[in-house]
Each structure stands twice: as structure tokens, then as C-alpha cells.
Design goal:
The protein is mostly beta strands and 387 residues long. It has a domain at 1-105: Immunoglobulin-like, CATH 2.60.40. 0% of the residues lie in helices and 46% in strands. Strands 2, 3, 6, 7 and 8 form a five-stranded antiparallel beta sheet that branches. A four-stranded mixed beta sheet has the order 4-5-1-9, with no helix packed on it. The two termini are 33 Å apart.
């Protein structure tokens, strides 16, 4: 894979840009060994290198540095960007970032390429668009509405904490000012909240799902918000358009799906207090935001993956799909060290939340990683027409 970092920055005479990260090409995060970016055009600087996926971890963490004529440097910030290599199958990967003159990233920045990989100049400015939230912001998920409009969600820095952030764009890449007045909004859930998943309901309402710190329990809570098509909070959902689930301590949710009846299912991870490890977690809400007690009696399911070679192995669901018959399929990973020895895990549930024993006898199936050099990571799931 060829990775090229493009940084949008207008330097002054005598200034030089560098990139530092936790791999050998980026100096193993030693600032003095950071790689030098090269001038590309009047807007961008770039740095490119080749990687072998088998020789690299799941993600690369990096940040930029600006060096002045006198040799002094400004570091972009304490927090690194994370590039999840396992999310990309392409042979060529272009990464676009923005850095403002204050020394912090404060824009959501994305591109729209043609199918041949060239940028679509009819979209935004030269195929690219930015949205300034006024502080550090990160886009984590994207959804396309039925009318072609684009909705992004992620997080934005708010003082010493973070909030949900959403932005909507017209098909030409311009901000949609019918959405919250200026095409963007933020939602405060509490300390360190952020959205990582977004979906659009058939009526145009927008659901964003993420997490918020569970103060005192050293974990996080599921955070879910529903917005009307104009960006306002949908007060028919949990009275104020948002809710957290305080029944699931130390939980992390990564995916969601909307059933045909409008109920919302989310999947992720829950800490099992009895085995002291992580399990698959599913939770289902009614249309009004209340927990659906017809789903495993209390609206939530915890599923451990037991295998003879590794009982009580930690597991986490990262993808979710609803079958036409209402059965729920969740997929993710399990293993003693999911980052370096990940095995694929999949479970199918009946509509009431019980495991479907017609699927692999016990409702669960695994694909074991027997190659020490391979890493299996489940990011999404697709149901075929034949089921």
C-alpha cells in the first residue's frame, strides 16, 4: 500500500513542515526524526511511503510539526491522528488533513473522488470541503440521504471536553444552511462525548450514536441522539432528543441499525463483572427512545464467546445488520489480545434477543486466526439476497 499524507497549509518563507508518528517511516514519534513534507502545490504539502500491511499494526498514529526559520518548532497538539489501516483495502491511500495558523486542527475535511480516484471538481473546492467548528474536530462516520445530501458526524472539542458534532452538505459539497441554520451543530452529552456512527431513518430523521464518559465507573455509556431533518432535536425521542443508557456500565457501542418497525438496535461491548472480561453487547430502543423490554426482557443482551481453547475470551461487536425476517446479526472479534491476535466472531439473534440456535447450533460462529502474521478485524457486515 502507498500512503500519501496531504496537509493543507500556507507556509511563510523559511518555514518547513514535518510529520511524526509511531512507525519507522515517521520516526517512531521521536520529533527529531520526523519526516519532512514536500511542497506539492500552493495549498498542500505531502509525504508518501510504502507499507506492507502484514508488517504494520492495525493503526498508525501521527501528528504534524511546523519548523520556523530559526529552527524552533510548533507541534500540532498533544493528541495524535489515528489512521486505521485495516479499514482500507486499496493499494493507494491518500490522507488529507488541515492545520490552521493557530497550530491546531479545527476542521472536518473530506474529499469526493471519481470512480477512477481523481477528485470531482464540481464538489466543494476542487473536490474537497472543510467545515470550521471553531475548535479541534474529527469526523468519524458518514451517511448519504435519499436526496443525495451528505451528513457527517464525529466530535468537537468544547473547552476541556468533547461534544457530538454533525454537519450536512448539499450534493455540490456546499454546507446545507437549512440544517441548523449554518449546516452544522453540536450536542453536549457530558464529559468526553463523541459520535462514531450515523444512520438516516426513512422519514429523514438522523440518528447519531457514540459514547460519553461514565464518571466514577472508569468506562463509558452509550449515547444516542435523534434529530429532525432540519437539525433540531427530535423531542419525541426521550423528551429532549437524546439519551444515555445508564443500565450498561463500562460499555462501548460501535454500530446501529433501524428495524422496519422503527426500533433502534445498537451493538458493541460490555464489561462482564462476573468474568472480568468484555462481551458482545446489544441494546434495543423503542421509537420514543425508551428501552424495549420485549428484547431480552430488559432491552439489552450480553453474549460471551466460549471456545475450548480460550474460555471467557474478550469479545466486541463492531458491525450489525437486520435480516428481512427480523433476526439480528452482529459481528466483531474475540481473543485474548484482540489488537494482535484477533479472531472473527459472529452471532445471530431472534427478534426477542435470544440466540438463534438454527445458526451454527448455538447462535454463534467464529473464524480462528491461525497465522501469527495476520490480523482479522471486522468492520462491517452485508447480508446477501439469499440470506
Amino acid at each position: 500500500m502507498t500512503i500519501t499524507f496531504y496537509l493543507k497549509f500556507s507556509t511563510q518563507p523559511g518555514q518547513q513542515l514535518f510529520i511524526s508518528g509511531d512507525c519507522d517511516f515517521l520516526g517512531f514519534d521521536i520529533l527529531d526524526d520526523a519526516a519532512s513534507l514536500q511542497y506539492y502545490n500552493d495549498e498542500f504539502w505531502r509525504f508518501s511511503f510504502e507499507v506492507n500491511a502484514k508488517d504494520y499494526p492495525e493503526e498508525i498514529n501521527y501528528r504534524y510539526l511546523l519548523q520556523f526559520e530559526d529552527g524552533s518548532r510548533v507541534i500540532e497538539g498533544e493528541n495524535h491522528h489515528s489512521l486505521l489501516l485495516s479499514s482500507y483495502k486499496a493499494k493507494v491511500l491518500d490522507v488529507y488533513d488541515v492545520w490552521n495558523h493557530a497550530g491546531t486542527i479545527d476542521n472536518v475535511f473530506f474529499t469526493q473522488p471519481f470512480t477512477d480516484g481523481t477528485l470531482d471538481n464540481s464538489f466543494g473546492i476542487g473536490g474537497m470541503q472543510t467545515t470550521n467548528f471553531g475548535s479541534n474536530s474529527v469526523a468519524a462516520a458518514i451517511a448519504i440521504q435519499s436526496n443525495g445530501e451528505i451528513v457527517l458526524t464525529g466530535s468537537v472539542l468544547n473547552g476541556s471536553t468533547t461534544d457530538f458534532a454533525l454537519a450536512r452538505y448539499n450534493r455540490n459539497g456546499n454546507p446545507d444552511n437549512s440544517f441548523s441554520g449554518d449546516g452544522k451543530l453540536t450536542t453536549d452529552f457530558g464529559p468526553n462525548s463523541g459520535a462514531i456512527f450515523i444512520t438516516i431513518e426513512s422519514d429523514g430523521k438522523i440518528i447519531a450514536i457514540g459514547s460519553v464518559d461514565d464518571v466514577g465507573n472508569f468506562g463509558s455509556l452509550l449515547a444516542i441522539a435523534r434529530y429532525n431533518a432540519d437539525g433540531s432535536a427530535d423531542n419525541s425521542f426521550s423528551d429532549d432528543g437524546k439519551r444515555t443508557n445508564d443500565l450498561v456500565p463500562r460499555s462501548f457501542f460501535n454500530a446501529a441499525a433501524i428495524q422496519t418497525d422503527g426500533k433502534i438496535v445498537a451493538a458493541g461491548t460490555i464489561f462482564n463483572e462476573s468474568t472480568h472480561t468484555e462481551n458482545f453487547a446489544l441494546i434495543r430502543y423503542n421509537i420514543d427512545g425508551s428501552l424495549d423490554n420485549s428484547f431480552s426482557e430488559d432491552g439489552q443482551v450480553s453474549t460471551p464467546f466460549f471456545r475450548s481453547f480460550e474460555p471467557d475470551a474478550p469479545s466486541s461487536a463492531s458491525a450489525l445488520a437486520i435480516q428481512s425476517d427480523g433476526k439480528i446479526v452482529a459481528a466483531g472479534n474475540f481473543g485474548s489480545n484482540p489488537k494482535y491476535d484477533a479472531n472473527i466472531a459472529i452471532a445471530r439473534y431472534n427478534a426477542d434477543g435470544s440466540l438463534d440456535n438454527n445458526f451454527s447450533d448455538d447462535g454463534q460462529e467464529t473464524i480462528i486466526n491461525n497465522d501469527a502474521y495476520d490480523q482479522y478485524f471486522t468492520k462491517s457486515i452485508v447480508l446477501q439476497k439469499d440470506g
